[in-house]
Amino acid sequence: MSATSFQPQWRAKPLSTVLLFMCFSCSATDITDSAHVAGMELQLASAKDKCELRVLQDAELKILSLKPEPPCFFLRRGADEPQRFSYPKVNIDYVLLVAGSALNERQRTLWNLPEDMQCGSMRQGVLVKAGQIEITPSVIKDSVACKNTGADEKDFWAFAHL
Fold it and tell me: Looking at the whole model, is its pTM more than 0.85?
């Protein structure tokens, strides 16, 4: 192969990666949260009144629909990175939890939650298995989960062992 025939291919890959990243970062109407996990960029977005998980890995974009309604966010426990647990016995590298379906005023009052605290009433699991992302078919409904207070490990375990 001559240098002239190789060079356009070499330049095309970095350019396509840059263009894909630009598209990834701006294509949703509202990015509500993001994280880096196992070499992947994960973004939660609101698109057409639905939550979706956008996964950028190896210059490929994968979009997965979620059941919670916007705004959606990863659960954290006082840290910048989302809470996650590993379950090697069931071949799960990581389980993360996404919460959404914003609480109404009555629920906030009942739980004595301040307005500036981001909370939702539905949770869904995101599984990382052998470098791939899966969304759990099951959800936890009618409960309260707040972005910065996280969840108990038993909830992560339950999603890993469905």
Answer: no
